[in-house]
Prior knowledge:
Blueprint: H1 4-8, E1 17-22, H2 28-40, E2 44-49, H3 51-56, H4 59-66, E3 70-71, H5 85-91, E4 94-100, H6 102-110, H7 116-122, E5 128-133, H8 137-140, H9 143-154, E6 158-159, E7 163-166, E8 172-176, H10 180-191
Parallel strand pairs: 1-2, 1-4, 2-3, 4-5, 5-6
Antiparallel strand pairs: 7-8
Amino acid sequence: xIGGAMARxxxxxxxxxxxxxxSGGISAYKAVDLAGKLSGLGAKVKTVMTESAxxxxxxxxxxxxxxxxxxxxxxxxxxxxxxxxxxxxxxxxIIVLAPATANIIGKIANxxxxxxxxxxxxxxxxxxxxxxxxxxxxxxxxxxxxxxVKTVKGMGFELLGPEEGRLACGSExxxxxxxxxxxxEAIVKIASGIKKS
Length: 197
């Protein structure tokens, strides 16, 4: 439930364009809830999914809660044939990546652009971008992953999480994606500083 502070800021998402990136972590299902919450607060939401994310959650789930086409390929869609990775980046006021896997964080840190999502993330300079990491704690603690996290922070990306708790493998540790409500509150805070013309 939205608290008093969130209720007062409710209108702040009415004119905000949010590009939601979904990479292939098991917590991709939480991104559907996040997309629904964003749409419910009046944000316009477009979703970009990796091929791996599509194996975990169907694009139609995002289409249903956002009433917008989902982008999964660099090669366009029948619904919005004129949209490219640059058009999506130009359209967005805020870019949110949830979940942000070790793989996609590594791609951002090293400028790798081999699918629609990584290409959008390479082109999003000058935009506010929030990453919600999610992975096994052994992966999160890997020195290469920590180096990449430090790099993306230095590039201007904001991170929320990961949290400590039960992981998909059944063990306890740091690596859970932040809850959709917490991500939503971070987005509202970012949106409060965006001036729309």
